[in-house]
Amino acid sequence: MAFLELYKDRLKHNYQYLGRLFEERDIQWGVVTKLLCGNRNYIKEVIDLGAEEIHDSRISNLKVVKSINKGIQTVYIKPPAKRSIPSVVKYADVSFNTSYTTIKMLSEEAQKQGKKHKIIIMIEMGDLREGVLGENVIDFYERVFELPSIDVIGIGTNLNCLHGVMPSQDKLIQLSLYKQLIEAKFDRKIPWVSGGTSVTIPLLLKKMRPMGINHFRVGEILFFGLNLFTMKTVKGMKDDVFKLYAEIIELYEKPKVPTGELAENPSGEVMQIREEDYGKMSYRAIIDIGLLDISPEFLIPDDDKIEITGASSDMLVIDLGKTRRNYTVGDLVSFKLRYMGALSILNSNYIDKKII
């Protein structure tokens, strides 16, 4: 049976690396836990490292955080849906917002619950996901500042999340300038300029972060140690906090080329045959994971001689080449994961999750 392992010592190593990085630069930060898909044991590991602020895009996951430690500041990191507003106010201390109508409803609900709800207003900086357009920012803030039970604690942006627009000094300086304009116009302090995510860490390491950017929210780099500019591991960080293990359930020497008329498989793919593969044989193993669990493109075999041949819903075929390399049925094959692959695995009820 396939299973996922989280290695506590490697997670702690990355957490401490980031903690030092931010502390030296007087930056506040929170951990984005949406990757963990509400897994209570894994979330507790993050909290036990000393995290004081947890960000997530699912209210149910923030509910888990509050059930472990009510004192942790929880941040809901997408514009709330109308029907979720009572839960957002109950379980999220802070939420990201872009709609005046939504913020007005948050204000009304916070009054009902006897709370002050904190918000970060997201600004559109070119990636075209969520965000208020720059030319509307001043008017938007003017209306929001009039609402009771709402505390505007930050201005923020998301980059690289939809169209792949990368952060730059210019974009982050622009975000900082919006903060200065708002403070000057309304004589109100905006504590956070939340322009930092995992993809912004390389700018921080190169000392290219504008000083006005004083808040980061990070997930991917904590769990994978990945520089999203170079797609290489950040020096001093670990890239194997997670490992996926799958069992070999069949192993035979078979032809490399299928026989018969080829049509689309259930995934809508038609196999492209390489002429050099005709007449060749190789050892092919089936392991007990499939497309229901993960897309093969997000798997990184620890054995670099393994080639992933294809997958169906519940099984994945790997090519071991001309030699089986001492593999037998029942052996485990291990993989490192890319972010979206880990997200799929952690969202699967069919994969056991362990802590090492």
Automatic annotation (TrEMBL):
Cited InterPro entries: Ala_racemase, Ala_racemase_N, PLP-binding_barrel
GO cellular component: cytosol
CDD domains in alphabetical order: PLPDE_III_AR_like_1
SUPFAM superfamilies, alphabetized: PLP-binding barrel
Required cofactor(s): pyridoxal 5'-phosphate
Coiled coil regions in record: none
GO molecular function: alanine racemase activity; pyridoxal phosphate binding
Domain Alanine racemase N-terminal: residue ranges: 9-224
Keywords: Isomerase, Pyridoxal phosphate
The protein's name: Alanine racemase N-terminal domain-containing protein
Provenance organism: Fulvivirga imtechensis AK7
